[in-house]
Amino acid sequence: MSVSTIPAPKLGERLCENGFEHPKILPAIDDAHGGVIVDLNEPMDPQHFATLLRSSLLHWNLKGKHGVWIKLPINLVNLVETAVKEGFWYHHAEPSYLMLVYWIPQTGCTIPINASHRVAVAAIVLNQNKEVLVVQEKRGRFHGIGYWKLPTGVVDAGEEVFAAAIREVKEETGVDTEFVEILAFREVQNSFFGKSDLSFLCMLRPLSVEIKKQELEIEAAQWMPFEEFAVQPLTQKHEPFKYVVELCLANVEEKFYTGFSPRPVSSYFEDQLNYLYMNSNELDKSS
Amino acid sequence: MSVSTIPAPKLGERLCENGFEHPKILPAIDDAHGGVIVDLNEPMDPQHFATLLRSSLLHWNLKGKHGVWIKLPINLVNLVETAVKEGFWYHHAEPSYLMLVYWIPQTGCTIPINASHRVAVAAIVLNQNKEVLVVQEKRGRFHGIGYWKLPTGVVDAGEEVFAAAIREVKEETGVDTEFVEILAFREVQNSFFGKSDLSFLCMLRPLSVEIKKQELEIEAAQWMPFEEFAVQPLTQKHEPFKYVVELCLANVEEKFYTGFSPRPVSSYFEDQLNYLYMNSNELDKSS
């Protein structure tokens, strides 16, 4: 049902505090790129929302604004259809909200793209007995085939890659670790709904021994002699897994291979501590 | 307006081809994790959708299904409110569709998270005269301050990091390049709406000289003596930019620094060619 079939004045009048008042505009804050952000939280009648939205767009147009962002919490789902009918489209969504966007100018739209990647980690935790920490999962594509795999997991938004590797090992196996370096990474295209995964192979040093496996996702966890891990048929068959073994040996055993390690750097613009991942080993050797 | 105020039987009858027929279930395909995916394309009355959705959820529950995904193209925006009222929440959205999700079992939900990162590239293109390819943008935080910056851009979903670097240089400056390696990368947390950027510093070799700048985003582009680029106040002030200069010199001038370069690897599961980014230089030297 189109909201435009409902007579506008009636609902508009009902919601105006003053019967003679014209519709106001939506509350908005300026963004850093010449646009505005509307962060709605109060319930609203869709027809009143449509009226406000139209007058707001006229207002922002006159002000020379570019992009218009509307963040609708999921409890205001009744306003989504109205925004789309007024020309907005989806930008991104999280479980609790939907972000809609509109571009006012006639010239080319420079609305930035949505997040496109998940970032994942696979953790090599090798102890001094040359045993590697491995798990079997309760679900997923490695389930039920007897393959002992490295602990893996997804980097949360706002989390550093090295912190995610430490966290995932702790969650899945209970083992404390310190981060050493990233040995390699790869992109897996279209891993879910057209998005890609960027997966970092991380080397960590164990700080504890005892295993307490996570119940929800982990079937079994153990310290496994590295040679046994390496000769598993799937490790042999799957080229990226073969490189895990080769890079690990080159790094730990023969000590000629160095990856990227995180180095704290200040950030001029963001006022936060970042980490630059680079071949610190080579850089330091030279100076 | 809540759809539940519309009397259900009337609309239900209207849409059933056979007046005596009970509501069918929504067309769905199984996913690889014990769930189902509904990919709706045909317009539907919200009340009929609600009826179908309820009977479908009962059916999938009996079948022991876990996650239920509903992909709604933006032209079916009139069904979003209904899905949310039936207990669905947002998973992700792209300009053309919204993905909703529901978890049937009583046990812990293992719906994977949405994409959390944008992946960006910054390109160092250095010619044999020790000139670096730099630009000034028409918008953004470097606009209007006279800073000559490296060409940068965002990696599309489904695009390799190295391919994005080559594409962005070509788009912004018209210069053809070949990819050499990734010198470093960093994560910039909360760069937009709580999402993070993962930004790769890429070294490329120019294959052409003539500059044809892109009109929409680029104010100016030039080949600039590397020393001039390095002594710009912002390069000196901003720690990550100082590392750009240091790593570039270590890599090109003094030749002791190596980054990660892409190596094609087959993929056992995905039936696609992946690239593993690693310190190929060190690995090859040893063998």
TrEMBL record, chains A, B:
InterPro entries for the chain = Nudix_hydrolase, NUDIX_hydrolase-like_dom_sf, Nudix_hydrolase6-like, NUDIX_hydrolase_CS, NUDIX_hydrolase_dom, Pre-Nudix
Q: Which Pfam families match?
A: NUDIX, Nudix_hydro
Going by the UniProt record, its keywords in alphabetical order are: Hydrolase, Metal-binding
PROSITE patterns in alphabetical order:
NUDIX (PS51462), NUDIX_BOX (PS00893)
Residue ranges of every copy of the Nudix hydrolase domain listed in the record? 116-248
Could you confirm whether the keyword Hydrolase appears in this record?
yes
GO molecular function annotations of the record:
ADP-ribose diphosphatase activity; metal ion binding; NAD binding; NADH pyrophosphatase activity
* Assigned protein family: Belongs to the Nudix hydrolase family.
What name goes with this protein? Nudix hydrolase domain-containing protein
